Amino acid sequence: MVATPSSSGPVRADVRVGRRRPTKGDRREQAILEGAYELLRDTPLRTVSIDDLAKRAGLSRSSFYFYFQSKWQVLFAMLGPVAEDVFTASRLIFERPVEMTPQEAMERSAAEVVAVWDRHGHILREVGDAVGAEPELRAQWDSILGQFIEAAAAAIERDRATGVAVSGPPARALAAALMWMGERNLGLMSLRSENAIHPEDIAETMATVWLRSVFGVGTRAQSKTGTAV
After folding, report:
1. What angle do CA 191, 195, 200 make, to 5 degrees?
2. What are the backbone angles phi and psi of residue 99, rounded to the nearest 5°?
3. Could you give the CA distance from residue 205 to residue 202 in angstroms, rounded to a whole number?
4. First CA to last CA across the chain, in angstroms?
5. CATH 3.40.1160.10 at 72-225, yes or no
6. For residue 131, which of 52, 138, 156, 195 is within the disulfide window of CB 3.0 to 4.6 Å?
7. 163 exposure class (CB count in 10 Å sphere: 0-12, 13-18, 19+)
8. Compositional bias of type Basic and acidic residues: which residue ranges (predicted)?
């Protein structure tokens, strides 16, 4: 099932407002998206044809073109809701409650982001494969990552102002380095690369890098065993 829009996160330009009942066209468009979401679990988009996508949705080839001009536009449409799920999972990084420690917030967010990324990994894998050749998709991905970076930078600046975070590189530069680090490592996980961090270690590893870079502390487990620097 394609992820549904969450109540927070990056704004999508294609969200329909109002409470009207779905039309036949809406249902057909959703059938294309849901069919593609399932098809891409086992089949790379570059080997999928328009006929494959139309057949999966129970539509003709001409009907497919009424909703999407290319298979890459289908991927474009799926990316927004997936990114919203990742943003929601990252919420504690950006808006940590006052009563929550950085360790608890970062550990929970890292675990949730890894879980969401693993669930949608086949879509994010295809995005990573396509961004180099599809300018529209690359621009969308850059915009999404930019929103994550800006939210993280604002959080770092707030925590530095209150003395919770340690000093370091400019907040946006640090946020960009951390976000792209996470994106690359999670992407390798989705690709099942031999060089990927082991799935059992990736959440702790990402949380550790964030905590030591931003707050100068390790995870709660590392603090208990005396391994934090």
Report:
1. 80
2. -80, -5
3. 5
4. 43
5. no
6. 138
7. exposed
8. 13-25
Determine the Cα–Cα distance for residues 3 and 1; give it in Å rounded to an integer: 6
- Under DSSP, the state recorded for 196 is S
pLDDT value, residue 24: 61
pLDDT of residue 12: 38
Segments in the chain forming alpha helices (H): 24-39, 50-57, 61-67, 71-89, 91-94, 102-119, 121-130, 135-161, 171-190, 199-210, 220-225
Q: Which amino acid is at 25?
A: G
What distance in Å separates the CA atoms of residue 46 and residue 43, rounded to the nearest whole number?
Answer: 9
Please name the residues in contact with 54: beta carbons below 8 A apart, sequence gap of 6 or more: 32, 60, 61, 63, 64
Angle at which helix 135-161 crosses helix 171-190, to 10 degrees, equals 130
Other beta carbons within 10 Å of 15: 10
Q: Is 119 left (phi over 0), alpha (psi -120 to 50) or beta?
A: alpha
Domain residue extents for the chain: 72-225
Mean pLDDT of 57-76: 95
- Global pTM? 0.81
pLDDT tens-digit map of 151-193: 999 999 999 999 999 999 999 999 999 999 999 999 898 888 8
